[in-house]
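Q: I'm teaching a short session on how sequence maps to structure, and I want students to see two examples side by side rather than one. Could you give me a first protein with its sequence written out and its structure tokens following it? Keep the formatting plain so it prints cleanly on a handout.
A: Of course. Example one:
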Amino acid sequence: RLAGAHACVIGIGGVGSWVAEALARSGVGRLTLIDLDHVAESNINRQAHALEDTLGMAKVGAMAARIAGIDPHCRVTTIEDFLTPENAGALLQGYDLVIDAIDNVRAKVAIALTCTQRRIPLVMAGGAGGKRDPARIGADDLARTEQDPLLAKVRARLRKEHGFTRDPRKKFGIEAVFSNEPLRFPEVDACDAAHPGAASAPQGLACAGYGSSMAVTASVGLLCAARALEHLLREAEAPARGATPEPSA
């Protein structure tokens, strides 16, 4: 069942790289990976494809090479581009399921709209930065997420600009993976790269943003993959459940 499935992973970073690896290791037969970023030294703490010998490579290329070493039979298509509202319609077609692992609000809204219109199952990852406790990660409808500013902005735009329900009792029909842990801000002077001597720090290292923990980013990715696999298996089983049984001899 999974060998015949085609899943698309958008964003091959701290969350999406683990999604892609989990789907490949679980036997999904075809993957399309979308990202324009390249592997940087700051990615090594949390991204599956980030190694000393992949620095500078396109993330989709590094991930495809890693998957080839895991399952040579998995067909991987790489798209070196950022998904935007302008190209979402062209890029999001022909998939059995899409996993959104990016952190751009406009792009996430475009993904939600396109997948909803085309009836493509979607699993949307929330923000993983500023979180420490992977036990606080769960899945629910996008209309019901908590403590996730990224998903809250996506939800607000879908309601205000695109007519999604405002009724708290109703769902959007989009599964979201998120942590209900309150955001934690970095401690003052927590990173040497923030000091006056930061110019001497290795290229690609920075401490902007909330900071992230591999235990959390990978856990978000693995739960996204688990929910995606459940969707794919459910869809594969649906015709069998509705089929007319063969007459007995």
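Q: Perfect. Now a second example for contrast.
A: Example two:
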Amino acid sequence: MFKFYTNQESFKEDGTALFCDYPHLGEDAYVGQIIDVDSGLFQIEVLEIKDDFLSVQAQNDAIIGSRRHVNLPGIRLKMPGITDKDRADVKFAVEESMDFIAMSFVRSRENVQELREYLKELGGEHIKIISKIENQEGIDNLTEIIAASDGIMVARGDLGIEVPIEKLPSYQSNMVKETLAAGKFTIIATHLLESMIDNPFPTRAEVSDVYNSVMQHTDCVMLSGETAAGKYPIKSVKVMTATIHEAEKNLILENRDFSNEGLTARDIEKKALIKSAISAGEELKVDALFIFTKSGKLARLASSFRPNLPIYAFTMHLQSVAYMNVLFGVQPYLLENWDEQFVENIGTAITICKENGSLKVGDKIMLVNDIQKGETEIPVVELMEIL
């Protein structure tokens, strides 16, 4: 038995104890609870709760480093949506012109709204918010969280500790389906190639995990420890890339619809425009869909249909290129010499795709554009042949 302190001063006087910087640990925990440390590597049972420490009993042997995660499965913690440290990190992200912020342990719509309002205060409203679903409360409130977010991360590390492990595969599948149905993007993360932190080759199960994640229609799969602290970061990326490409060969794509919930009236019009362009393009067997967009939203709508067409998206904003890079099936390009009258943009886009081998003379493209001209937004859907 040993002590698990919540008061740092008391902890400093006891060299045989552990310390957690969550001040409400004693209020949230209960006698008999199992607390997981470092993603479950070390488990402790709560025997007694005092003002500034918990008396706990180790359930297994483990070597624990500093700054490890502590999980209280099934407990609704009293943590704020955004801590003071979070605010400092967000401020840094805005100052450094980051493209995305992944928000940990999102539990409700209000958490996302609070972050979005703070970003707006700092002038960082362009930054996309990815909500990490990491506990049961996030699962329970998934629909409202999706509506408030730009994308969803299936953060399997902490989620696999916070919920019964056997439920994790079904939760992952449902999160991808529901997020796709809402027209948003998903990222599947954690333990995809975990063994490659120390080994040059993945396990067969890990390769199957990456493959099946693609087959579930996720937009992205993400490495973390494999590239951040592993011995084989480049090889990990190569293995994942090869597995993704193999999965994509067997992926059945079909033009599917998705919900209008959370879309503005203008977005619904854009969605209808994209839907008709994709349907016509597939019927006419065009070789690609060309999208011209400022914000990347038109490309997101096209991606959410999961068309059986490559999507080439062109924009004048580098931030939009970064956003579109995470979207399923979208290859974004930056047009640095953007023609506001739009005439030159089509020729420039075709030249780019001819030069990189994506398209050739005689190929047909379906062009979609809703770029505003003056005070008027003129949607265009046009069939073209490359000359």
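Q: What should students look for in example two?
A: Point them to this: The chain has a mean pLDDT of 91. Also worth mentioning: The first strand starts at residue 2 and ends at 5.
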